[in-house]
Every structure is written in C-alpha cells, then in structure tokens.
Amino acid sequence: MNYFKGRHFQKDIILVAVGYYFRFSLSYRDIVELLRDRGITVHHTTVMRWVHHYGPIFKALWRRHQTAHAKSWRIDETYIRVKGRWAYLYRAIDSNGLTMDFELRKHRDYTASYHFLKRLLTTNGRPDRLVTDQYRATLKAVKHLIKQDYLSKSAHQCSKYRNNLIEQDHRFIKRHRVRSASFQSIRTASATLSGVEIVHAIRKRTRRELSLIGFSVVDELEALLAA
C-alpha cells in the first residue's frame, strides 16, 4: 500500500519527522526547528497529525511481522497522564528484553488485564514462565485464563525481582514524555505511544543482533513499510 498518497510532503520528510519524534524526547516544535534548518517549512500541527496517523500504521505492520520470542515473559503496566488523569500502559517483554505487545487502557482493572493477557497468549502461545506483579486484578485475570486453559498454573510466577527487567524497560517511555505536552485524549495517546513503542522495540532487536551499521530510525521505518 502507498501510505503516503495524497500527502503534501515527500515520504522521506514525513519519515524523518515522525521517526525523530518517536525515537527522541522532542516536542513537535523541536521537529519543526530541525526541519527548518534543512530548508523544510512545516507547521507543528502538521507534524502532530503525521504522528497520530502513522503511529497505528507502524504498530499494525510491526505486529504482522513479529518473530518468535523467548518462552519466559514479563508483564507489567506503567502510568501515563492523559488530559490530567492517569491511564495505564500495559506492556509485555520476553526474558531477552524484546517487546512482545502493549496496550493503553483507561483503567487498571480485571477487564484490562484479562483482555491484554488473553490477546498475548492467543498470539504467542503458552509460555514456560509468565511473571507478573501481585496486583489483585492481574492475579484474578491470570486465574481465569488458567481455568480456560490458556496458561498452565505452574507457569505463573509473582516475583518483584524477576519483574525488574520490565520495570527498567518502562523508563524509555517515561523519558520520552518529559519534553512533550500532556496527551489530550486516549486516542491520540494510544496513536503516539504506538510509534514510540515500535521504534523502541525495533531498536532493542537491532542492538541484540549486534548490527555493525548502527541504528537508523528512518531506515528501520522504511524497511517496516516495505516488508
């Protein structure tokens, strides 16, 4: 598909703008300044619309081409402020630190935990180990999934020490939001975080593969679009 048909700017310009925004802790106005130094004039609201449009597209393409993961998983959620209120970003990584899935929810409750875990298990199969915290809603969701035979009882573990891996991984998302304005809706927050998470996931995979070329967010997004 031509994801750039009808745009007033070339594909390369759009990829640089959204790629840099997803990769670094920059505001929309920072991106505008970077482009202006290269002779490209664009309004910050245009960059914002690009971010909101392409974040979900990159997420869909990334999910379509995911590779196999390790069979030991870490599940946790982190807080994201949306229009003055807390929302909850559910995240899953494997024992190698590679991103498996993520989802932004309005509430941190049984329903959110259950649907996130069920999709994770449906997509990736049964793990040998699933590590969670001891939050009551999460434990209730895990018990329900065990009863439905999505997960074996012996695979589930509650371990603060083992979950340190994903706690550390949350930091990238937190750092990224320092320079940016607060989200104004769940829709725009989800779209933006989709792009941030995908770029973070690709970068982790590239670093693990010990690429000699180094990481280029624009090249990686090009490859994702072409896959």
CATH fold descriptor of the largest domain = Nucleotidyltransferase, domain 5
Order of adjacent strands in the largest pleated sheet: 3-2-1-4-5
The profile of the biggest β sheet is: 5 strands, mixed
Spell out the helices and strands N to C.
Answer: HHHEEEHEHEHHH
Name some characteristics of this structure.
227 residues, alpha/beta, Nucleotidyltransferase, domain 5, five-stranded mixed beta sheet, 8 helices, 5 strands, IS6 family transposase, transposition
Structure description:
This protein has helices spanning 11-23, 28-36, 44-64, 110-124, 136-147, 164-176, 186-208, 217-226, and strands spanning 72-82, 85-94, 99-105, 129-132, 156-158. It is α/β, with parallel strands linked by helices. It has a 5-stranded mixed β-sheet with strand order 3-2-1-4-5, with helices on both faces. Helix 2 crosses helix 3 and helix 4 crosses helix 5 (136-147). This is IS6 family transposase. Pfam families: DDE_Tnp_IS240. It comes from Limosilactobacillus reuteri (Lactobacillus reuteri).
